[in-house]
Design a protein that fits this description.
Strand content: 15-25%
Helix content: 25-40%
Structural class: alpha/beta
Largest sheet: 8 strands, mixed
Number of strands: 16
Number of helices: 12
Distance between the termini: 24 Å
Order of helices and strands: HHHEEEHEHHEEEEEHHEEEHEEHEHEH
Amino acid sequence: MNLLDSLQDTSAFVTLRRDIHAHPELGFEEHRTSQLVADRLREWGLEVHTGIAGTGVVGVLRCGDGPHSIGLRADLDALPLQEENHFPHRSLHDGRMHACGHDGHTTMLLAAAWHLSRSRDFNGTVNFIFQPAEEMGKAGAKKMVDEGLFERFPCEAVFALHNFSLGQVGKFALNPGALMASSNTWRVVMHGRGTHASLPHTGVDPVAATINLAQQLQTLANRLINPAEQVLLAVTQIQGSDAPNVIPDQAWVGGTLRTFTEEALDTLEAGLRQAAEHTAAAHGCTAEVFFRRASPPVINHPQEARFAAEVMRDIVGDALVDDHFTPVMAAEDFAHMLKVKPGCYAFIGNGDGGHRLPDHGAGPCVIHNTSFDFNDAIIPIGATYFVRLVQRWLARP
């Protein structure tokens, strides 16, 4: 059976994807989506496990007596955005939408499970991992790992796909190292002593200290990290008094920090803490630093990345596979799985902005915007990739 052809000839998975799109659920609240996934997997004869990290689902499919195992992962959750699309399958819930394509990722993995359950043309064990709470720094992947995901469901390697604006529908992009950055948020609260703005000598001004620190942080990365290494320290928030004539007791500055190595992250966190402490002391204030590491960098394992690229080429040809894709500053919590298991994360092209199937309208294909919709044309391509990964990985000697 040619999987690409068989999936293109049926609308069942397009209908399923659009149903998920119309019923978006936020991280750790994906009850309807998880139930839908579990019901489909049971219907197709898989062994189904629910309640992992709250709303996570794992479907297990075994065939033959092969010794090898593989994990395939998709994310379930939506974003807290108000959808602006007007097609029939737009979100039915105000303030929630699938603006990142997780509805499509879930559908591609379900399509692969459907095919493999029917064909049984592999020898070994496949674990279909449907993960909750990838968005908003909730780290559902870490929670699954911490709850014993890979002890309960052994995987020699794990693989995942994410739709991305690559210009061509069905193009694949990956690299054998860091593909996405770590995601970290920080906030520094300067504590002073409030007073009337007309009497600054009677207080200790935390606003001046906060502004000074914000300016220093603009050049911190340049002073601490080799220019050849790509990092990002962004100041995105600043807050002082709520009134124009009041020097407050405290002020704060915050932002995000992105790196492609843990070493650079350690260096910059230490530098930020030191700059906050010294700046506060210079102004007679005290500094309180809040630093949250949401996701480590997504670092592919070279052997698994090469394996994945070979599978991709067999499906779409050399011209549509970029196996040395430039890393992006966005983040993904699949990184937590790659820290404990070999594997590969990759992008699949959803088309240029404005590229849509005829009934989709002209919304852009850039993720995380309120007019986004997953391109259904890549469902069979992504599903085929997952199926071919299974067949080839489990066929190894």
